[in-house]
Amino acid sequence: MSKFYGIGTGPGDSSLLTIKAVNTLKELDILYTPEPKKEGKSLALSIVQEYLKEDLEIKQRHFPMSFDDLEKTKAWDEIAVEIEKDVKNGKNVGFVTLGDPMIYSTYVYLLERVRDKVEVETIPGISSFSNIASNQNFPLVMDREPLIVVPCTTDESKLDYALENYSSIVLMKVYKNFKEIIEKIKKNNLLDHAILVSNSSLNEEKVYTNLADLDKDKISYFSTILINKEEKRVG
Amino acid sequence: MSKFYGIGTGPGDSSLLTIKAVNTLKELDILYTPEPKKEGKSLALSIVQEYLKEDLEIKQRHFPMSFDDLEKTKAWDEIAVEIEKDVKNGKNVGFVTLGDPMIYSTYVYLLERVRDKVEVETIPGISSFSNIASNQNFPLVMDREPLIVVPCTTDESKLDYALENYSSIVLMKVYKNFKEIIEKIKKNNLLDHAILVSNSSLNEEKVYTNLADLDKDKISYFSTILINKEEKRVG
User: Fold this and answer.
1) Which residues of chain A does B22 touch, with a Cβ-Cβ cutoff of 8 Å?
2) Residue-wise over B145-171: b if at least 16 C-beta within 10 A, else e?
3) Hey, are the CB atoms on B111 and A153 less than 8 Å from each other?
4) CA–CA min distance B154, chain A (Å)
5) Residue spans in chain B of domains classed CATH 3.30.950.10
6) Where is the signal peptide (chains A, B) (predicted)?
7) Contact indicator for A101, B134 with CB cutoff of 8 Å
């Protein structure tokens, strides 16, 4: 029976796909790929390119990143209808998404629209924070401690609570209020227990282990900070 | 140059290893595997078995799960010394660990002991909660919400705070005070937004989508509850 497959590509390095993801990609008739910009190149597509069969039909679709909810909803509705039609026509249809499909991925908006209409199988991927921790040999969380992952676009009070109350913290989307975040980390005496990585597993990857001396006003869109009070890192 | 490799096997299904993990396993001279019980079979070893070369030397080592910290520390010290010696003798040495090496894994205790002495490379793995979410098509977290992962062996106040204040919650190690945890989920009106999975990705996997009707006193050691206030699941 034909299916819709949501496939996590992991953070960027093609060798971080799972065997299951690679085997599934090889069975697809059609692959949908998300593009943040019209006519832009899909990062998710470039990660999986080497595993695709030659006659695979690729449908690059634009996913608006704007704050206009109506524009977004309309795009997702249209792509979901297209996917449903392809699966009902007997095709195995895939969609690739960066990192893990269930953790901060727009794949969920497609999933919600098609899961009652066609069979769906989701294949997990390595999330960016997990990859950064391994690459830096930086233990994230142990024993009885909670792990909290906070997008820095959340309410400031939630960010403050996390920094004050948890030992193991992942801060995502730090690009927006980067300077203030560093100040908050400093205020909580966590600078020595934090690392910052931009563009993890891509060619432009940058690792900062000494956040105290980090004299930058801006930081890449794909930047993540890992904090573990049990770990000590000074540049 | 020879290295020590910490390799995440993912949750249990051999096809959930990454390409990088499989390629690394093939290059090893020696593989250390953890065994919770003396003479017991290593689950991590059985997951990777199909990828190992025939003449690989396997060193099964006992990792005590007791509450006796001295016994544990002694075991880790001894294994770390053994690994260091093997790497300094020019061997590529691996260690396999369930899930992701940086998230609640005893691998970290070895890493801390050897990372200043030999070169170490850690390869991430799919964590159990990420796998459960994908298998159940259960979105974990979206947009601006934090994600909190709580081992239920933590302080009760931390568990309560998480249930009262976050939308996206992973509860691990729920076997111990299972009945009380279900009561707490009920009290916070989260029963309809939760699923429980035991032995994810193993043959004995069990999925419970209706926690209200779950009439059990005990639950398997490998049990995890996913909660997302934005998701509604009733049996």
Assistant:
1) 19
2) bbbbbbbbebeeebbebbbeebbbbbb
3) no
4) 5
5) 129-228
6) none
7) yes
Say whether A122 and B104 touch across the interface (CB within 8 A): no
- The answer to whether B182 touches B206, Cβ cutoff 8 Å, is no
The 8-class DSSP code of residue B49 comes to G
Q: How far is A89 from chain B (nearest CA, A)?
A: 22
Q: Where in chain B is the domain with CATH 3.40.1010.10?
A: 4-126
Complex-level ipTM = 0.95
Question: pLDDT per position in chain A (235 positions), as tens?
Answer: 899 999 999 999 999 999 999 999 999 999 999 887 766 678 899 999 999 999 999 999 988 877 678 888 999 999 999 999 999 999 999 999 999 999 999 999 999 999 999 999 999 999 999 999 999 999 999 999 999 999 999 999 999 999 999 999 999 999 888 999 999 999 999 999 999 999 888 888 899 988 877 777 778 888 999 999 998 875 5
Tokens of B187: 């009290």
CATH code linked to domain B4-126: 3.40.1010.10
Question: How does strand B93-97 pair with strand B57-62?
Answer: unpaired
Count of A–B CB contacts within 8 Å?
157
The amino acid present at A102, given as its one-letter code, is M
Six-digit token string for B83? 């690994």
Identify the residue among A19, A110, A230 best suited for mutation to test binding to B, counting B beta carbons within 10 A and taking the highest.
A19
